[in-house]
Amino acid sequence: MALATRSTPAVILTGIALAAAASGGIQTLATALTGDLVSQRERGRAIGLLYTAGDLGSAIGPPVAYALLPLLGLTGVYGLCTVLLAAQMLVVLWFQSHQARPMSCGQ
Questions:
Q1: pTM value?
Q2: DSSP per position, 18-63
Q3: Domain limits of the chain?
Q4: pLDDT tens-digit profile of 39-93?
């Protein structure tokens, strides 16, 4: 996302390629991790919440971005997305550091 805020076409295209490569595995990995880290009893609910949050983001994100375009411009919208993604990463890392780690099958 940060690369999309630049004005150089090669840098923007690099950002797009990196985002495309990463997004291909994110949904599969998020589902697998949710299944691994949640008890079997709560697994269906957790995966349902995961997909509901994704659907809400897909439905709400574009209208919000279009509404912000006149105020922030395209670079500003991408910059805001970069900040939001970084904040999400910090929250995930904080939760990860405060959760007990599950044992793998070999332990």
A1: 0.65
A2: HHHHHHHHHHHHHHHHHHHHS-GGGHHHHHHHHHHHHHHHHHHHHH
A3: 2-97
A4: 888 888 999 998 999 899 899 999 999 999 999 998 899 889 889 989 988 998 8
